[in-house]
Predict the structure.
Amino acid sequence: MSNAATPQRPGVRGGPAAATVLVVVLGVVITVALIAVGERMLQYRSPASHLVLETIDACVAVLLSYLVYGRFRRSRSRQDLLLLLGLALLGVANAGLVLTLARSDWAGALGLWLPPPLRVIGTLLIAAAALLPRRSVGPALQRWAPALPVVVVLVTVAVLLWQRDRLPQAGELDLGIGMLTGSNDHPVLLATQILTLTAFAAAAVAFTIQARNRDDVLLRWLGPACALGAMARANYLIFPPSGPDWLYSGDVLRTGCYLLLLIGAGREISRYWAAQADAAVAEDRRRLAREMHDGVLQELGYIRSELAAFTAVDEARVNRIVGASERALDEARQMLTALGRTDDEPLANALERAVEQIAERYGVVLALELDASIPADSAQRHGLVRIAREAVLNAVRHGRAERISVVLGQDENGQFLQVIDDGTGFEPGNRTADQAGFGLIGMRERAEALPGSFEIDSSPAGGTRVEVRW
């Protein structure tokens, strides 16, 4: 019996947690260094640079929400829906902040007070995406998902317009600048900073834990990105900006958070299209396999069956043609099997299936001893399978073997494949001119291409042993 087994794909272990911890450590080091030297010595006054960073944040957040929407359409999960809503609201908040910094016509109380609540709601939604269990959403939410951020923004605007007369205007009590830049002079502003810091920190921990057990590219970047967002909030608490004309560490760290998310989304898109390409290739291979089965194999089988009628005319020639037809059928069946095989199939499984097909067709006893841990890339696997098939076919056709052993293993000299039969055997040096000899040459060339070595041990009435090492 074969002990071949399909090895399980290893999970993601350690990597996401290490990335999140690295981001936190870097953020802490930067913050401590700024405390030591005083950020006032490192602050940079540049309204244009501040506007550029806020524009980058807004554009990246909107782009990310669009990309996550495509992910949500495929997964239909509540986690992706909440992540979509959170990123969309953060994008709108940043866009509003950009318009306010640019001093557009509408930059009054509404322009000052709209970004903070949207930022808080967006951050809380991202935290909810990380903390709530994964579930599928209903058809109604799937249909109306793109409209939900618009609804939240309109409701927030309506509330602010309702309370418009009570909201401070720009320049009043420095509160307008506080809302615009993140100053902590007001208790509400301080609570907002602490709430967003807590939400980002909780999301970073939850996303990092989930990424350890799921093969999800975007999820692996959400933990570090949220950790950087938490560090940005911490910097705003420690170093509250005093005006929109100055750049501070919190601004740079917040932009870094969005860029990490953009990298994760880009990698997920790359994996998605790679999977789509693989699926297209697999479908094309299945189509070719169907065409070959219904066309070439059927015609070759018909030719072989019809040749029996000409045996009395020239039996030797008919036998040669029948042999060629059988070899063509074997090659076509091998191609059919290769078209239906995945590229990540273990070597032991491919060998087992290939030689068992021949053993069943010719009625020989097959003994398999296959080590499933032996690795091989696609080219090596193809070469070794062809060598094994050729060796088994030679044993059946030329050696008239009744029992064949196939061994795949490794020892102190490396990895090896052996095919041993109890047939009549032959003198290898005297068989290079006939069909079996060409088969031996092909096996040797395939073995050397692994790269590896080829050895054959045979004698009349003594059976044959074919061995490949690589």
In short: The first helix runs from residue 15 to 37. The chain has two domains: 15-278, 344-470. Residues 1-13, 171-182, 432-436 have pLDDT under 50 and may be disordered.
